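USER:
Before I trust my own judgement here, I would like a peer's view. Write it directly below this note and I will take it from there.

ASSISTANT:
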Amino acid sequence: MTAEITFDLNATDGRARTGILRTTRGDIRTPAFMPVGTAATVKAMLPGSVAATGADILLGNTYHLMLRPTAERIAALGGLHRFMNWDRPILTDSGGFQVMSLSGLRKLTEDGVTFRSHIDGSKHMLSPERSMEIQRLLGSDIVMCFDECPALPADRDRIAASMRLSMRWAARSKAAFGTRPGHALFGIQQGGLEEDLRLESAEALREIGFDGYAVGGLAVGEGQEAMFACLDYAPEQLPADRPRYLMGVGKPDDIVGAVKRGIDMMDCVLPSRSGRTGQVFTRHGVLNIKNARHQDDPRPLDEACTCPACRGYSRAYLHHVFRSQEIISSMLLTWHNLHYFQEIMQGMRDAIAEGRFAAWETDFHRGREAGDIDPL
């Protein structure tokens, strides 16, 4: 690939933005939600099914892929796109978040993190340079720099030290990434819930220079109110002409609140994981398909939804196959959830472009507050 990745900001409405992130593998419409394909698959979905929900891009996980089947094996087989039969853009995380969550299985130094695999206990080293090498072998279109993400709450000194280490690692990631036309490198802002530390981080990232910028270190236990308070200033500290990515978010109202505050990209395992456990997101709120009240209900999950689960199957059937632990349950419920999340993104893109985001947001919350469709 030789073309550069570019970002066109087409419209704003308040702080909400809509645009297009152009890559050699296709355009990414923003605001964008990225389904998570942890181990080179979005669980219970075929790649074509993921695309049919409206997804322009998905996320792959560096930590899991480096352990199994290994980045070297994927590279030898033609790269991650060919390996998983996905021809649209892929963003890979750096592996840092998963490594940091290993707690007693890892050791942190200035050089990087030494850890033991959760699969077989084998010892590995992940550094900014190794993370860049793995993501290059995978062939992802958007690469994330290597960082440390401390869980919240944490004391200010711990957050400050972690952020400054992440900024040193960001500089090393940029140097190791080098010049790769057609591939983008995103920096990750850290600083917990401290506005001045977030600003220090943003200024360090600006000085290094990245193709896009992520707001990291949120959705790690701080709660929605604290997250939104941070997003009231954090995105504005980052360059306005580059995409802004909020990592690991989230629930539908988290996503809408983040876009309202200037975020362009998000990812989360929630819609697929919830589908496998029977939790269903609809414009009327959240329902649990395993509840007995659905067992005789002939209606779809959401009467306005056009996904295969809603077009072809009743709540009674979906309740039955879930309780029977049939594989089709995970397939249909995951498809529905991903479809609904992408429907939210399209609704916001249209509303921002037409200057009616506030009205759209009001309708979104009103529908969900009304609750699930009245029982029969």
